[in-house]
Write a structure and sequence with these properties.
The complex is a heterodimer of chains A (about 220) and B (about 500). By secondary structure, chain A is of the alpha/beta class. Chain A contains 6 helices and 11 strands. Helix content of chain A is about 25%, strand content about 25%. Chain B folds into 4 domains: about 180 residues, Reverse transcriptase/Diguanylate cyclase domain (Alpha-Beta Plaits), CATH 3.30.70; about 50 residues, MutS, DNA mismatch repair protein, domain I (3-Layer(aba) Sandwich); about 130 residues, DNA polymerase, Y-family, little finger domain (Dna Ligase, domain 1, 2-Layer Sandwich), CATH 3.30.1490.100; about 100 residues, no CATH class. Chain B has 16 helices and 23 strands. The chains are: A alpha/beta (about 220), B alpha+beta (about 500).
């Protein structure tokens, strides 16, 4: 196999060149993140992995602006196996349309993976959020392929020790909460160079945010 | 009156030559003749007794026999048995003597009637007056000729509809219902549109096709009456004395002298069809061919009656156990055969078959007429819709696992929301800042040196929101809610119970 034919593959790219021929994206709502991500936003039709110390503390605020932009396309969104209750009063306050949001609580992990894959593959959904208890490499491959078929934004929250495991996800970042928001470490990013650290400022309703330099575009 | 008397294109009257010339009436000739006010189309399915067993491709000679008579006469014969010289009406013992390894089934009249009722439901598409006869269907088609553009095109349409389901069909059109059925039972493709020609046309038909009892048949045989023509020529008074007055009535109705009122079929509201699985099946996968037949029948009936279903019920019957029910709720009304079958397979996969399945029933309650909906011109036909996805998820995961969210106008945070059916949310009331995640149950926090802990010491904001509510019901709340942050920079929503002074975490921002 020649090098040129190798570079034709979608899952192989040159880290040095910022490939602009990426697919559809949706703006993340955070300027530094948009500036870093190829195309200027979360990749649609691909799987995004967010690694975090404890998935029970998954940062919804990081993904809500993106989800909000997608709901305006009149598409449904499915949350598979969320660790807690996505609190409806807070979601409606942020503009999420609850009529288009469905929560799945599968009894078994195999059902959860099946449901996530079905939802990603169907073009009836714009985004699928999935909190797997565990996820094998082949499962990430299935999810990635399904999101390519459906053009759906697949979003997977995984514990940070999964960083050592291989993945086919187009984007993998490590999330660390900080005083002002979060520090994102880009572990893998298709179509861009790997390695990168971004500081994200959070527009929080908390009493602790006395800074007014919000970086939220929404 | 149509411009020309149509003829059925292929005329196959068997041995009866005079019948074959009936449809060849010339237009000129018929101009003076009176066209009958009513036209009855009889649909007779000679192989129906065999077909209700859903045997699939037949490889061995097979017959169906009738047990109501002592001689166990054969009522239906397949191709293989026919090649061995077996004909209908032959006693079963003779057939057994003629062919070794003959498969014989007892006639299942109930299943035949069920099939005819289903066919009649579809036939209401062609005519409002459908009659379910013991040996087939009768359709009054004179009223439908104009709508379908004449007899030729109506007949072509009916033929293509029935041939899709049954390969062996006899059709006959005559001015009276009983003569139509008689002709259909005698041979295929009979067309008599004219009342005056009727008597001449049916005179060659053997009398044993008439519905007479055993005594009457024997008597007619003894006096040498073979054909209906000969029977009609007999003196009426003598006929009434010998065979009973009822026979005169029957002959008058046959020839159209007396009117013959019919009970019009009213389609049943509920769809229900049962198929027998021969032999009994133990694997879900093996049931799919039967499921496919049932789904096809349902879909074609829905199509013909312009209805839809929002739920279908499967029932798997076992020999010595209560049957296994499987209910499929459907969100989308525009289901096609393939997607229904896919959902059925999904639902069947979830059950655990403990016993062999002998019969399989599909029932459904067709609902109101489908509103006219435009299909998308350029979209791919296999595009997945949201209701279809929702149905798939529900059938695999269960209704209780696929949930929507809604808010309630309520101060107590745990009562300000609930799960609901997806898409059944009514928007929406604004409230004070709330955390994005809510714990299902508040978690009690350790307190060290007067400071609450949650994965590390908490820094608690000074502002608080007091919620005192629900004193009128069983879960009163007296709490002060605070924002708090631990040393891992996790923002929490915590509260202090005013009664006890305990700290709880209730959500994450």
């Amino acid at each position: 196999m020649s090098l040129a034919s190798c570079l034709q593959r979608r899952d192989i790219w040159r880290g040095s060149q910022n490939n602009s021929s990426t697919g559809q994206v949706v703006s993340s709502g955070f300027r530094p993140l948009d500036a870093y991500l190829p195309g200027g936003g979360w990749p649609l039709g691909a799987l995004t992995e967010i690694l975090i110390d404890d998935i029970a503390h998954s940062p919804l605020w990081l993904v809500l602006p993106g989800l909000l932009r997608l709901t305006t396309l009149k598409h449904h969104q499915i949350w598979v196996h969320p660790p807690h209750i996505p609190y409806p009063p807070a979601l409606t306050r942020r503009g999420i349309n609850l009529n288009k949001t469905v929560i799945l609580k599968p009894r078994q992990e195999t059902d959860a993976l099946w449901a996530a894959e079905q939802a990603l593959r169907s073009d009836a959904c714009s985004a699928v959020l999935y909190w797997p208890r565990k996820l094998s490499f082949t499962a990430t491959r299935r999810l990635q392929l399904a999101s390519e078929v459906g053009g759906t934004w697949g979003l997977c929250f995984r514990p940070s020790h999964a960083a050592t495991m291989p993945t086919t996800a187009a984007l993998r970042l490590l999330f660390k909460p900080t005083e002002t928001g979060a520090m994102l470490t880009i572990l893998k990013c298709r179509g861009s160079k790997t390695e990168g650290k971004l500081a994200i400022y959070r527009d929080t309703m908390s009493a602790f945010s006395n800074t007014n330099t919000f970086d939220l575009i929404v | 009156m149509p411009p020309s008397i149509p003829t059925i294109p292929t005329i196959n009257c068997g041995a009866n030559q005079s019948l074959s010339c009936v449809p060849k009436l010339s237009t000129r000739n018929s101009a003076q003749e009176h066209h009958s006010d009513t036209l009855w189309l009889a649909i007779h399915l000679p192989l129906l007794p065999l077909e209700v067993f859903a045997l699939g491709p037949i490889t061995t000679p097979t017959v169906v026999y009738d047990t109501s008579q002592r001689s166990h006469s054969i009522v239906a014969v397949d191709d293989h048995a026919q090649r061995h010289g077996i004909i209908t009406g032959m006693p079963l013992s003779v057939a057994h003597a003629q062919v070794t390894g003959l498969r014989a089934f007892i006639q299942n009249c109930q299943a035949e009637q069920q099939t005819l009722v289903q066919l009649a439901t579809q036939a209401t598409h062609w005519s409002p007056n459908v009659v379910v006869h013991s040996s087939g269907l009768l359709l009054e088609i004179a009223g439908s000729l104009r709508l379908y553009g004449g007899l030729n095109s109506l007949l072509a349409a009916i033929k293509s509809w029935i041939n899709r389901q049954y390969s062996c069909v006899h059709l006959a059109i005559t001015p009276t219902p009983s003569s139509a059925m008689l002709c259909a039972r005698h041979s295929n493709s009979v067309l008599i549109v004219n009342q005056t020609r009727l008597v001449a046309s049916i005179s060659q038909i053997p009398v044993n096709l008439l519905e007479l009892n055993q005594h009457q048949q024997t008597l007619l045989q003894q006096i040498g009456i073979q054909q209906i023509g000969a029977l009609l020529r007999l003196p009426r008074s003598g006929l009434a004395r010998r065979l009973g007055p009822a026979i005169l009535n029957m002959l008058d109705r046959l020839t159209g002298v007396e009117p013959e009122p019919q009970i019009t079929f009213i389609p049943p509201r509920r769809f229900e069809k049962t198929l027998e699985c021969l032999p009994a099946r133990t694997q879900v996968e093996q049931l799919m061919p039967w499921a496919k037949i049932l789904v096809q029948t349902l879909v074609s009936q829905l199509l013909h009656t312009c209805k839809h279903v929002n739920q279908i019920d499967w029932s798997l019957h076992h020999a010595d156990q209560p049957s296994t029910p499987i209910t499929l709720r459907l969100t989308d009304e525009r289901y096609e055969e393939q997607s229904l079958l896919g959902l059925t397979r999904l639902a069947f996969d979830t059950i655990n078959l403990t016993a062999a399945v002998e019969k399989i029933t599909l029932s459904a309650m067709p609902l109101r007429h489908i509103g006219e909906q435009n299909a998308c011109l350029f979209s791919a036909t296999n595009m997945d819709t949201w209701p279809m996805l929702l149905d798939r998820l529900r059938h695999r995961l269960g209704d209780q696992q696929v949930l929507g969210l809604r808010t309630h106008a309520e101060y107590r945070p745990e009562h300000a929301w609930s799960f609901c059916e997806p898409g059944k949310t009514d928007q929406n009331n604004q409230c004070a800042p709330r955390p994005l995640w809510l714990f299902l149950k508040p978690r009690i926090l350790d307190v060290i040196d007067g400071n609450p802990y949650f994965h590390g010491p908490l820094e608690v904001a000074t502002e608080y929101e007091r919620i005192v509510s629900g004193w009128w019901d069983t879960s009163p709340v007296r709490r002060d809610y605070y924002h708090a942050r631990n040393n891992h920079h996790i923002d929490l929503w915590i509260f202090r119970e005013l009664n006890t002074g305990h700290w709880f975490a209730h959500g994450i921002f």
